[in-house]
Amino acid sequence: MTLPDNAPKRSPSWVRLTLMGGIACLLGCILALTLDRLFPPDLHRAHAQALVLYDTTHTLFDGRVSTDGSWRLATHHTAVDAAYLTLLLKTEDRRFWWHPGVDPFSILRAAGQLALRGHIVSGGSTLAMQTARLLTPHRHTWRGKIQDALRALQLEWRYGHAGVLDLYLGLAPEGGSIEGITAGSLFWFGHEPAHLNRAEAALLVALPRRPTALRPDRHPQAARQATALVLARTGAAPPNTLAWHIGTAHPPHQAPSLLAYLWRTGARGPVRTSLEHTTQETVLRILRTTPPPRSGGWAALVLRPDSSVAAWVGNAGNTCPGCAMDMVMAVRSPGSTLKPFIYGLAFQQGVLAPDTLLHDSAARFANYTPRNYDRTFHGTATVRTALQQSYNLPAVQALDLIGARYFIATLHDNGVDLRLPKGATPSLALALGGAGIRMFDLARLYNALAHDGFSTPPTILWPAPSSQPSRLFSSAVARQVLGILRGTPLPNAAHSDAERSIAFKTGTSYGQRDAWAAGIQSGWVVIVWAGRPDGASSPGITGLHVAAPVMVRIMDTLPTTPSGIGIPLPALAPLAPSLQVLPEQREPHVISPPNGAVIESFGQDGTVTPIGLEAAGGTQPYRWMINNKPLATLPGLAPSWQPDGPGFSHIAVIDAQGHATSVTIQVR
């Protein structure tokens, strides 16, 4: 029977099947995309990297583990020796570049071997499946295998073959807490994985299979056997001797302060810094072999002539309260170290010149009455002499001429911020250390003197990022100030010849809490700090007699050539006998407040600020007497005293043996 011409015709079966297949593929893709969005791969472990620091010569000199305690470093496959990649793929995944993350041939082979022999002969895991398990570690179960297979497909979909390979290279366990090929090569062989011999490459391929049992530092024989087996399985003839230079599983710890600073800024992975390990070691050795102030420590910063940081020692490893603090970035009172810049800006404005006569005599500026450190006045003196001798009154007069607000604003415009006490406004006390500054910023100011008045931020990365310098003051003014500072008398037993003349300034903060020395020579800048990081007083310390000799010793080890990069440093000279180290005192003595101090305790609003009391020496516990009356102190709390009214007060401390000492202060 024939159908009429207008009857509907059925589509051939293959058309329907094709249409249904297309719809199924579309639905499958939509489902896969949805699942991929709902369940993205967890890359937390891949992103949780360690931080390792290199110097300018690419020498590893410090490092810190990741947040989960691993030496994990991201690695790109182009940065790895081709011999390693060949061994890895031949050993772990021969068809890596063509399968979608799961190799069906490997799975069928493993299933057949299991069925014939009753036990697993070889696994079917691909590199993508191993990477999935490294990202989210779990026990080896059938359910885990299925999860790894699905994640492997997802990883290949998202990142491709090269991306999956990079993830594996950064996660492969290489023994202990070491993860990734870069970390394994650095810590076991002392170099990066770009250049590996066959034995080294084979060991790094073998280690992820049994990272604990094959650690070359603990099980060298097992590691050698595994290395030879990898070479044999891949058809490579093993070398006559599988020689390694096995290093340590931990990097040296030569720049902990810089490491902590970069970690706080978010730096991770390998970072090449401007430091040079020979200079860093030399500065560390000088500071560690020089006795610090009692209960205190040292810090130093060295800048090259190109404004890069050659050495950064935020703490020299001294044992004292707060000595773990990074004093390079800590805010401290600069003492008199800002005086050269007050005079320089006065020269810039034309209100003073190096030979202008100023009067170093008692003077009052509103409610501020400054004094010299030695409590004496020296009469009429030139600006040159006043700066070289660090007289206080002339510096305050110079700041009064240019204005404290102008001074602090000019420094701010040149990248240096002074930290005023809470609620304070710029005042003439800035000339004598009445504001806080970081050693890093102080180095920038003195670096401007070494660069004809141009202010450039010190750089800690290598190669140095480009930056636009600002003009602090003119070239002529910078040279005037530098010339004056070259005439500053050196500390006892220190010497300087015409070729190595040092322009420097020292400073001592109020209460002898900080001792500074800042020096410039042949374009190099050296800043040295001494004191107690916890802010307590260190009686007897001064910048001239404590910090300056150390600054001179560091400066004497630096080359006089313009670059200074990669040049061997001379041997260290013997310890200078002039360094004043305070001996331990058997009798008690008052540290704070110091004798003769004038303390502002009563505010204009009627509030009274308690005065903290601190003593040292003798035998604890201490008893305090205020104006011959005992002071009640609570156990476990630092003693403090709230004055009844302004005037002079007598403070005495008595130790457990009955020995006593006292000071007299003025409260207002």
Rough outline: elongated
User: Helical content, roughly?
Assistant: 25-40%
Return the structural class: alpha+beta
The spatial strand order of the largest sheet comes to 7-6-16-15-14
Q: Could you give a short account of the major beta sheet?
A: 5 strands, antiparallel
Number of separate domains:
3
Tally of DSSP helical segments: 18
Q: Please give the CATH class of the largest domain.
A: Alpha Beta
Report mean pLDDT, rounded to a whole number. Answer: 84
Task: Tell me about this structure.
With 668 residues, the protein is an alpha+beta fold. It folds into three domains: 44-233, Biosynthetic peptidoglycan transglycosylase-like (Penicillin binding protein transpeptidase fold, Orthogonal Bundle); 282-556, Beta-lactamase, CATH 3.40.710; 589-667, Immunoglobulin-like. It is 34% helix and 15% strand. It is built from 18 helices and 25 strands. A five-stranded antiparallel beta sheet has the order 7-6-16-15-14, sandwiched between helices. A hairpin with a 2-residue loop joins strand 21 and strand 22. Helix 5 crosses helix 6. The protein is elongated. The model is unreliable at 563-585 (pLDDT under 50). It is an enzyme of class 2 (transferase). It comes from Acetobacter suratthaniensis. This is peptidoglycan glycosyltransferase.
At a glance:
With 668 residues, the protein is of the alpha+beta class.
Task: Please outline the helices and strands.
Layout: H1 13-38, H2 44-47, E1 51-54, E2 60-64, E3 71-72, H3 82-92, H4 104-117, H5 127-135, H6 142-171, E4 178-179, H7 181-189, H8 198-206, H9 220-233, H10 256-264, E5 269-272, H11 277-289, E6 297-303, E7 309-313, E8 331-332, H12 339-349, E9 357-360, E10 379-382, H13 383-388, H14 392-402, H15 404-413, E11 437-438, H16 439-450, E12 454-455, E13 470-471, H17 475-486, E14 503-508, E15 514-521, E16 524-531, H18 543-556, E17 589-592, E18 598-599, E19 611-612, E20 614-616, E21 623-626, E22 629-630, E23 640-641, E24 647-654, E25 660-667
Parallel strand pairs: 1-5, 3-4, 18-25
Antiparallel strand pairs: 1-2, 6-7, 6-16, 8-11, 9-10, 12-13, 14-15, 15-16, 17-20, 19-23, 21-22, 21-24, 24-25
